[in-house]
Specification:
By secondary structure, the protein is α/β, with parallel strands linked by helices. The chain has three helices and ten strands, in the order E-H-E-E-E-E-E-H-E-E-E-H-E. Strand 1, helix 1 and strand 2 form a beta-alpha-beta unit. It is found in: Cytoplasm.
Length: 224
């Protein structure tokens, strides 16, 4: 399959962070979102990072999908403003947080979700793997295993939250939840198909695919 590259229309700042606590990344996203609601002319942003082990629940998520007592949890659990059910983040999973003003692209949330899926499908294709969508669900599957989860929040057409791609995480953390509330479709990671793969090498591939799909010029940036 030949992918045609969309001409670059906008600049987008790319922040590559290694390990960042979930709460710190959440505050950073909220700050970027607020700034862009107040000033829609600010550049778009893509953050790529990994989190220490943490569980997150979407705004309307059902706590029954947790297999442990929320009130007595030894694990970090956060209920946040994204859509979707419970998910798990840990090192070896690459998380992407696009802060995009959709008025520059298309004011259509279904379109945006499909674009995020397309980014990840292209990443998998780069490794000779055929990522798939499943009608009625959001995310990307490989041979029936969900390798990428997506959950977003949009305010005044500015996005936050985003996607999580399982590259080489410790998958045992998923055993304590019903991931994304889906009981009959297991989760998987790229390491099952590509032994020895590490998240560092996948970052540039995600950035390249994101640039192509959204037609943006990524500008390497630094955040202290």
């Amino acid at each position: 399959m030949i992918h045609t590259q969309t001409p670059h229309k906008h600049r987008c700042f790319l922040y590559n962070k290694e390990l960042m606590p979930y709460v710190d990344a959440l505050q950073w996203q909220r700050s970027l979102l607020k700034e862009r609601i107040n000033n829609p002319d600010l550049e778009d942003v893509l953050i790529l990072l990994e989190h220490p082990p943490v569980y997150t629940l979407g705004q309307g998520a059902n706590p029954e999908f947790l297999k442990f007592d929320l009130d007595k949890s030894e694990y970090n659990v956060h209920r946040v403003e994204r859509g979707g059910e419970v998910t798990y983040h840990c090192p070896g999973q690459l998380v992407g947080y696009p802060i995009l003003n959709l008025q520059r692209y298309r004011q259509d949330l279904h379109w945006y979700l499909r674009q995020l899926e397309e980014v990840l499908i292209r990443v998998l294709a780069n490794y000779g793997l055929q990522g798939e969508r499943i009608p009625g669900f959001t995310g990307v599957w490989l041979e029936g295993r969900k390798v990428a989860a997506i959950g977003i929040k949009v305010s005044r057409w500015v996005t936050m939250h985003g996607f999580a791609l399982n590259v080489c995480p410790d998958m045992t953390g998923f055993n304590r939840i019903v991931p994304c509330g889906i009981t009959d479709k297991p989760v998987g990671s790229l390491a099952e198909w590509i032994p020895g793969i590490i998240s560092l090498e996948v970052r540039s591939c995600i950035a390249q695919s994101f640039s192509e799909v959204f037609g943006v010029e990524l500008i390497d940036s630094h955040y202290e």
